[in-house]
Structure formats: C-alpha cells, structure tokens
Design brief:
About 60% of the residues lie in helices and about 10% in strands. By secondary structure, the protein is mostly helical. It folds into 2 domains: about 80 residues, no CATH class; about 70 residues, no CATH class. The protein has a two-stranded antiparallel sheet with strand order 1-2. It is rod-shaped and about 80 Å long.
Length: about 150
C-alpha cells in the first residue's frame, strides 16, 4: 500500500502536469474523462443485465491523454452464448442476452448485432419447443393446434 507521501507526490505531479497543459490539451483531457465515464457506465449496464451469462468483468481499450493518464475509450462485456439444455432454458438465456445487449440507453452497433443474434437464438428455441409440443400432442402441423375440438 503506498504511503501518503507517495500519494501526495503523485497528486502533485498530476496537478503540475495539468498546469503545463495548453487550453486545447485541457479540453482534450475533459473530453477523454467524459468518454471514460460514459464507457464505464455503458459496460456496467451490460454487466448488470448479463448477470450469470457474463464471462468475467468489463474489458476496456484505453487512450493516453495529454496528461499521461489512461482513459477508457471503448469496452466490452463477454457473454456466454451457449444454448440451454432445454428449449425453455435457451429461450430464457436468449431473452437475458438481448436485455444485456440493449441495457444501455444508447446501444452501439455491436450491441445491436448481439441483440439480433440473441433474438435469432430465441426464435430457433421457440420453434424447437413448438415441434416438441406438436410431437407430444400428436399434431402434424401448427394449424391443427388452432382447430382442435374442445374436450368435454
């Protein structure tokens, strides 16, 4: 654990470095700091919605600012896309994946692509579930489900 003198030295060095930055560089630092906050919030929202489907924590890509600090400018949360053991479980996982992909207020293009992939996975699982139900009921096609006479 660093001692307070080391922390004060780093703080002094940082404030001294900021004093040497031009107005343009200070504006760039402010822009990078805002982007860092936005990226971290965005990925935290994915992480929270992904729950147990998340594989580890958020991973970030960084850019060094004119002040020498690293700022997160991109990120991702890896998720498991494994199907469940049953169509119902796969549907549940796909719904959660789609929710995680679209959790941030402004999903990115890659986020929307993951949501589309999850929606396709859900559709396929629903089709499998329908086939299983039809087979169990001895129905050869879905329209027969709609035209079954009511049992007395």
């Amino acid at each position: 654990m660093p001692d307070s003198a080391a922390i004060n030295a780093v703080g002094s060095a940082t404030s001294a470095a900021r004093q040497r930055l031009s107005a343009e560089e200070l504006a760039q630092v402010a822009k990078l700091a805002a982007r860092d906050r936005e990226v971290r919030l965005h990925e935290a929202q994915h992480q929270a919605a992904a729950g147990s489907l998340a594989i580890g924590g958020p991973q970030f890509t960084y850019q060094t600012g004119p002040d020498g600090k690293l700022y997160a400018v991109g990120g991702e949360v890896k998720m498991s896309f494994a199907a469940g053991q049953t169509p119902e479980e796969t549907i549940s996982r796909a719904v959660q994946m789609r929710a995680a992909a679209t959790a941030p207020a402004n999903p990115s293009g890659p986020d929307l692509a993951v949501a589309a992939q999850a929606a396709a996975m859900e559709t396929q699982a629903r089709q499998e579930l329908l086939k299983e139900t039809q087979s169990r009921l001895g129905i050869s096609n879905a329209s027969q489900l709609l035209h079954q006479p009511a049992s007395a």
